[in-house]
Amino acid sequence: MRRSQTSFDDIITAVDNDVLDVLVTGSLVISTDFDTALKNDSIRAEIIGIPLSLLILLFVFGTFTAAMLPMAIALLMITLSTAISFWMSDWWFFGLTQYSVNMISLIGIAVSIDYSLS
Length: 118
Prior knowledge:
The protein has helices at residues 2-15, 27-61, 64-91, 98-117. It has one domain. Helix content is 82%, strand content 0%. It is an all-alpha fold. The N and C termini lie far apart (43 Å). The protein has four helices and no strands.
């Protein structure tokens, strides 16, 4: 994938000029666009969601320590799950995509907050 991404960037720079309008399509272009959009959306969602979750947990629990505990568990869970997923993808020869990393972080935060409230 890295080699094809480098080739894709080289192609875009080679055909970029003011005279021609060249459009590129295919699975590589679509995959690159989806990965870029997914990464940007994930960062924006976490920048908004994590502080909002902390405020809600602070309101519910009343103390900063109790509000930070679910976030600490989520951080540990996300780190371990990403490491295990990376190891499994390397062991079984399939790539770890941006989709799986985003799902791990979202599910990790959601489960840790849910378990802390019950």
